[in-house]
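TL;DR need structure tokens for one chain.
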Amino acid sequence: MKRIYYLFDGTFSARGISDDLLATGLDSGQLHFLNRNFQALDAQHVHRTNIFDEKDIGHSGVYGALIGLVCGVLFSVIVGATSLSQYMSLQAVLFIWMFFAFFGGWAGGIVGISKDNHHIERFHDAIEHGETLLMVDAYDDKEEEKAKDVMFNHHKEATYQGEDSHYREFL
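>> reply
TL;DR here they are.
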């Protein structure tokens, strides 16, 4: 999946952009509008971003889980080098690994909720100054071409800001 980014002033154009992109066959779930004034976006009846689009919960959670798993393995190795190793079964070792991984994922998610999503952090200042970020998810080249064509030919008020070629929600 490819995610395409556009910025435009305010929220007034959001409904027209949404309608034009929906007319090309895109689904409303493929359009994500982000503005600091979410009530204005709701008044335009467009699909707003969700917390996973706005915050870095998934990305930080995955990395936290990986770090937790590594810590769990290291803890198991350290305990295994002591006299306690005779009391540890394979199930106990696996439980320790899972516990550390889950704890790391939880802690990473807590850290991530306090940060902007790493995909959109470059737009933070623009959003704070009242601009709206539109993220369009294109699942194939045909959808990408349609979306770019509509935006270029009908919505000059929105400026192209780049794309993520291999967008993944959690990485």
